[in-house]
Write a structure and sequence with these properties.
This protein is α+β, with helices and mostly antiparallel strands. Helices cover 44% and strands 18% of the residues. The protein folds into two domains: 5-204, no CATH class; 219-332, no CATH class. It is built from twelve helices and eleven strands. The chain has a four-stranded antiparallel sheet, with no helix packed on it. It has a four-stranded antiparallel sheet with strand order 2-3-4-5, with no helix packed on it. A three-stranded antiparallel sheet has the order 6-7-8, with no helix packed on it.
């Protein structure tokens, strides 16, 4: 049976690849050689062949880079039958083979960046890894095949749009560097949406959702967090505070940066915990026990905020913890 280009390069440099696996096995003796052969056949080969098809003269570089990266991911149980990630195997099976022209340019950077992004999105319960992959394919279809930088910048914008709220500032900056069709695809904008005006509104209002009507009063936009026993980060009900940068949550001697906007919300651990102001009243506001929220001259009764144990405001966002949930309610001012 005729060998594929990928298989031929594995055979030609058998000693090099066997040595790499032996070194990995020294660090982790239980590595299964047969299982890794399955990874090479099922995950690596389709990506390598797709990349080689676009730049055959780079076949050796492509095979070596993808082999080494796949071995590292396999060693960490991120690829293969025992993978503790669903997003990384999905990225290798469904996404990377469709990005062969970009992988060929810099196989290690392309495959590692996409694997890392998929893993990070998977770890944020409110984010959507599969949604991000679909958006990235839309960006790729509009990106010149030689421009890996543009693809990865578009991927960052798409990750923000898919729920990674802490990417907000860098994603908005990336939109300035991307061609308009790429930025539109990454943001999922309707073709009729005015691009410059939409970006201006996104910068001015973190709770602006393109295509949605303007808010007339404070409104609960979502929630984040939860009890650790149910997949959340908190062992005790969190306390909320603000510092010069934004909102924070504290629980059990730990602290998290709370990032939130119309696309999602994230909690990032902080070490060490910064100095804070418990309420952070940027302007006059109050929250009554019945959930009546008064902000400047605007008032809304939001029963879901009743019996607040902790609350804080930063700019256009109010965060609330009630006696009835470990999740933090997020209110757009």
């Amino acid at each position: 049976m005729t060998m594929t280009v990928f298989e031929s390069h594995l055979a030609d440099r058998r000693d090099r690849f066997n040595s790499a696996f032996a070194a990995a096995r020294m660090a982790r003796p239980r590595l299964d050689g047969a299982a890794f052969l399955g990874v090479l056949r099922e995950a690596v080969a389709p990506v390598a062949e797709a990349a080689i098809a676009t730049q055959p003269d780079r076949a050796a570089v492509i095979v070596e880079a993808l082999y080494d990266l796949a071995l590292d991911l396999f060693r960490q149980d991120l690829l293969g039958s025992r993978a503790r990630s669903a997003a990384i195997p999905l990225a290798w099976s469904d996404l990377l083979p469709k990005l062969g022209a970009f992988v060929a340019i810099d196989p290690l950077r392309a495959a590692a960046s996409i694997s890392n992004a998929a893993y990070n999105l998977e770890r944020v319960p409110e984010a959507g890894a599969t949604e991000w992959m679909a958006r990235l394919l839309q960006v790729a279809a509009l990106t010149p095949s030689g421009d890996l930088d543009a693809l990865l910048r578009g991927g960052q914008v798409a990750a923000w749009r898919s729920g990674m709220a802490h990417y907000r500032a860098s994603a908005l900056a990336a939109c300035d560097d991307l061609a308009e069709p790429l930025a539109r695809a990454a943001l999922g904008l309707d073709p009729s949406a005015p691009f410059s005006e939409t970006l201006t509104r996104l910068r001015a209002d973190r709770w602006y959702l393109p295509g949605e009507p303007a808010r007339e009063s404070p409104r609960v936009m979502g929630e984040v967090g939860g009890f650790r026993g149910l997949g959340g980060p908190f062992l005790t009900l969190p306390r909320l505070a603000v510092d010069a940068t934004g909102l924070l949550a504290r629980a059990g001697g730990r602290a998290w940066r709370l990032n939130a906007d119309a696309f999602g919300a994230t909690l990032l651990p902080l070490h060490p915990a910064p100095d804070t102001n418990e309420r952070g009243a940027a302007r006059a506001w109050s929250l009554k026990p019945d959930g009546a929220l008064q902000i400047d001259k605007r008032r809304a009764v939001l029963p879901v905020l009743a019996d607040s144990l902790s609350n804080a405001r930063f700019e256009d966002t109010v965060a609330v913890v009630t006696a009835w949930s470990y999740k933090i309610k997020l209110v757009a001012v």
